[in-house]
Amino acid sequence: MKKKTSSRGILFKVAAILLLLIIAAVMFVIGRGHTVYIDNKSIDYNGETYKAYNRVNVYVNGERLAKLGARERGKSVNIGQEFKMTIEVTREKGDEAETLEDLTFKLPYSWDGIVINVPAYLSNLPQEVWMTEFVAQTTEAPAEEEVNTDELDEFTLGDF
Amino acid sequence: MNNKPSVGKRALSFLGDNLVPIMFIIICAVCIPVSGFSASYLINEIVTRMGRNIFLILCLLIPIMSGMGLNFGMTLGAMAGEIALILVSDWQIWGIPGVVLAMIVSIPIALLLGFFCGKLLNMSKGREMITSYIISFFFNGLYQLLVLYMMGPIIPIKHSSIKLPRGYGIRNTVSLLNMRHCLDDALAITVGGVKIPVLTFVLIGLLCLFTVWFRKTKLGQDMRAVGQDMDVARDAGINVEKTRIISIVMSTVLAGFGMIIYLQNMGNIATYSSHSQIGMFCIAALLVGGASVDKASIGNVFLGVILFHTMFIVAPSAGAKITGDSMIGEYFRVFVSYAIITIALVMYETKKRKMKSRLGLQLQADQAAEEAAGKAGAQG
Question: Which long-range contacts (CB under 8 A, 24 or more apart) does B152-155 make?
Fold first, then answer.
């Protein structure tokens, strides 16, 4: 009888651990954050130049995220593996704006920052041209940071 | 014969039992008008702080139930929560999924720390509070070793925004910008200008329900029995040591969750100091609510948070208005926090001694009566 109870207990524990692992795995996928940069910049590919547009309005979740002139960049933070946006493109000054709704992009899991080049994307260039990994440019060596492991000052509580 | 105590005695006993909350109500009643804060501002602040702190304070109830007093070792759970949040930040899991993942990651760390703490507390029965207080310092050293030297070379940390420029160790502050208020803002409603973080309160409500339910379970009853008398509980067949370890482990795991809720509200982790004072403030808040070392309820938690934080909010401003120096208010609230813990501990010891001497006198009187009855019987 006791054996039955203990084996049931072990089963219950294993099931609980499995459930937690599954939830953790799901969180890993649905919670992965990416910073998406939307570029309206000219790009050279195979000796041809794809020119930046006169104006690109970017909408995410129904709200205007950026109003990009030529050579400008917008930024959006996105949670999950899919990024959706709607863009309004005015190709040349005086042209009528064309709207491209619900453009969906699959974001590479391992990239923290992703750059999407709108002119390259709309010119149907290969994905590796219009979607690239964002790498921050650092010109200066980072300043050393002094670590403060002391307890809080006895006479201040900070915020609580 | 009427054994009912007089009204005066009852009033005195009520005052004695609720001295700390009454003192706080008076302090708040004086400071609120002086501070000059509007009612809506005060309520907004208090509601925010309730959402931020109540979960953490609720984790103190289980060890009190099992007679282990105020668990200063909850700091260990807070460390587990912080380690989990640092890892999750580096893995770039944001929003509510980040909070859930941090909670899951904190569980094994808190289980391990809680188990060690429980084992050590079993070796120092009767001195649990001071032991748990010192354990938290001991583990703080281990935490610093882990965070300062092992994160980077042994535990992979990728992002330079988290890692120190020297290549290992964690920065003084880790930003939780992409998690900030994610629980508080989800399902939040605004009533009369006061933002109510519904999801956070739902989590708090669930923990309250769990605590109420848990008291009625076999394990909960065992804990209460252990808390009342360990020898009697042992004679009744309860595994006292195991029950005490479980209560500390549960408290540590819940403290880890509470710390994650607390930090998502704050929006950043002060890597080397966020956890250091948390136990002290949670315990102070619980005691302000009228709890004692051996008795605490959910009501004490709520009342404590409201009173303690009202004092926290209004004291600096009231101090500045009364004395012209805002630091006076700051000193005052620090002084009050520590004083409350001291008063509560002294009152607990005094009550215990009084009870002991009363029981001794009762026993003496019973024995004398028995002897007198025996003599009378022999003479008859």
Answer: B155/B87
Contact with chain B for residue A143, Cβ under 8 A: yes
Q: Is B165 on the interface with A (CB under 8 A)?
A: yes
Tens of pLDDT along B192-238? 888 999 999 999 999 999 999 999 999 999 999 999 999 999 999 99
Which residues from chain A sit within 8 angstroms of residue B330, using beta carbons? 155-157
Strand ranges of the sheet holding A72-79, from the earlier edge strand across to the other edge: A72-79, A33-40, A113-117, A131-133
Q: Across the interface, do B95 and A148 touch by the CB < 8 Å criterion?
A: no
Considering CB atoms only, which of A31, A32, A145 is closest to B165?
A145
pLDDT in tens, A5-19: 678 889 999 999 999
Q: Strands (DSSP E) along B30-98, which ranges? A: none
Residue A77: list chain B partners with CB under 8 A.
94, 178
Bridge partner list, A33: A79
* Each residue's pLDDT tens digit, B64-88: 999 999 999 899 999 999 999 999 9
The CB-side HSE value for B74 (13 A sphere, CA atoms) comes to 29
ipTM of the shown complex: 0.83
Compute the distance between CA of residue B259 and CA of residue B143 in angstroms, rounded to an integer: 15
DSSP SS3 for A71: coil
